Amino acid sequence: MNDTTRATARTTVPTTLLGAWIEGVGLLGPGLASWQQLSQIVRGIEPYCAARTLLPAPTLLPPAERRRAVALVKLTLATGLEAVAHAGRDAATLPSIFTSSSGDGQNIHAICETLASSEREISPTRFHNSVHNAAAGYWSIATGATAPSTALCAYDGSFGAGLLEALVWIATEKTPVLLLAYDVDYPAPLHALRPIADAFCTALVLAPERSTNTLGYIDAQLTQAAPTSATLPELEQLRANIPAARCLPLLELLAARRAGSVVLDYLDDCELAVNIQC
Amino acid sequence: MPTYTSMNPLQLSCFTLTTSLGAGLDANLQALQHQRSGLAPCTFETVQIDTAIGAVAGLDAIAMRSDLSAFDCRNNRLAQQALTQDNFATQVHDALAHYAANRVGVFVGTSTAGILETELAYRQRDPQSGLLLHPPRYRYSHNSYSSADFVRRYFGLTGPAATISTACSSSAKVFATAQRMIDADLIDAAIVGGVDSLCLTTLYGFSSLQLTSPQPCRPFDAQRDGISIGEGAAFILLERAVNSRTDNILLLGVGESSDAYHMSSPHPEGRGAQQAMQAALARAGLTVDAIDYINLHGTATPSNDAAEGFAVAALFGARTPASSTKGATGHTLGAAGAVEAAIGALALMHDFIPAGANTRSVDPALPIDYVLENRRQPLRHVLSNSFGFGGTNCSLILGKSA
């Protein structure tokens, strides 16, 4: 297998532009109860008031799963459903891309405490909730979605990784897709290593074609330019402190119904240059 | 059922594999051809569980490349060992000369990354503050992205990258992401793979679910009683297929689905498994008759094998030879998809069907052609299944160009 013939051989770098129509947005975060509320804040209709993230009860889950639902399940279910409702789509038909910078810190803290004790048997529920795709699993059970679903991590660039995956999905599969980017707070002592202070989730329904629910058009390409800050200082503080909130410069444009360009955090030497047209 | 258009084939330009069977392709091939198992009683760390495991020898002695010393942990040691063998890194560097550094992606599957470092750190906490006295380098060991980040930095790449962590389908799904990114012309090539290493979370976790077997696991056996956890790494360089090459190992189809049923039990009739296999066949433009061998997920738990057996029987009947190689390697969890893709590629290159090690008497309730003795026969197409917690399913179809 040492044949060095290559189907494509390039030394120059074409910048492939990927695009999609945004049909629905969901949002939960500190002082942000919905996409609607963020829109009001961005348009200056109401002020931002700092508060802990409120997690709605996951009423869509069967009772057994509902009882075991942890913060990130409540967070992602509520946010995903908000976006899907705005898009006027049936959640059961949508493929999904879940992305989180750090998974479930509460759960892994409890597991590590148990494993460091003399009684190492960890709870079966804690164990199956420890998989990085736990939120995706609960989502599919709650909504009956049997379409493909993935769960990504790219550290602080996890929103960028998810957005890129979603745009690539649109380009190749040419069907609508749901993107969910979330983080939950890390408790002590892990908090010292991963200082995420509160939960944040955004959901986007993206589609290959314009529909009556279209909010705007997004395109993106790789860049080495530096990431853009959020405009509002309170939102910039969230953006800087919670990796899932690295989406906020994009959401500010969309909420203001303003065309514009921002650079979103992705990887070392590789960020995402995003244009929004409304 | 959604409709699928066939995908453009990719070639597995080079690949490498480490499991409990040994380090490198030759060691794994020899073990499979002699129907050896790498499973042995668990003596890992301070673990007190009556089970067999598939441990990789020698990881404690591995020194990380000096510029990547921050990544030092069992998981990245295992990854580095794999990258440095089978001439893999050299072949990747040769290929990279043809591409811009930001046009090569890195997609790695893992379930637990370097969580072992954090588990051990929790044993030494300040009695007053509860702080970890010897905190791990979270970003470079515990965080899931550490696995992809390590490989990306190892090769000095600046293109798209992510860790895919969907439990035991993780490193099968990396092929889907890479295939879509190449198809979208975002990248020209991708290093994909999986790496998962032994840790206490998975050993005690599967034990708490009563899913670990007290003996080397026996997939599809009537007496099967649980899994044997293993560790392993496999990496593959994927590029657009060069049509003129003969004996090229190709990725022809990837199929994904969700069970939407239960967090830790498969749909009893393998609904999602059937959807994933059907999608992979549709992408490859193949019918069931074209598949010469199925590398089963085959974890050896009663319910997993029953669901998969039902699904395979529903699509293929009993006419397609099938086996699980987890009796040989153990269940390498997030690495299983890539490990078994590499085994599928070895089967195609060497025209043999690996038997399922340890299995003695196939469960008569699972009416498929489960292979108990190695078979030598020409192979053109291999299907490999990977399923995971949360009801995540992924099937791959590999082929050999004529």
Question: What this model shows, in words?
Answer:
The complex is a heterodimer of chains A (278) and B (402). By secondary structure, chain A is an alpha+beta fold. Chain A contains nine helices and eight strands. In chain A, strands 3-2-4-5-1-6-8-7 form an eight-stranded mixed sheet, sandwiched between helices. Chain A is globular, with a radius of gyration of 19 Å. The N and C termini of chain A lie far apart (50 Å). Chain B has eleven helices and 17 strands. Chain B has helices spanning 25-33, 74-83, 88-96, 115-121, 146-154, 170-183, 200-208, 271-284, 302-316, 326-329, 336-350; strands at residues 10-19, 22-23, 40-41, 52-54, 104-109, 161-164, 189-196, 229-230, 232-240, 249-258, 293-295, 321-323, 352-353, 369-370, 375-376, 381-388, 392-400. In chain B, the strands form three sheets. In chain B, strands 1, 2, 5, 6, 7, 9, 10, 11, 12, 14, 16 and 17 form a twelve-stranded mixed sheet that branches. In chain B, strands 3-4-8 form a three-stranded mixed sheet. In chain B, helix 6 (170-183) packs across helix 11 and helix 8 (271-284) crosses helix 9 (302-316). Classes of the chains: A alpha+beta (278), B alpha/beta (402). At the A-B interface, helix 4, helix 5, helix 6, strand 3 and helix 7 of A face strand 1, helix 3, helix 4, helix 5 and strand 6 of B.
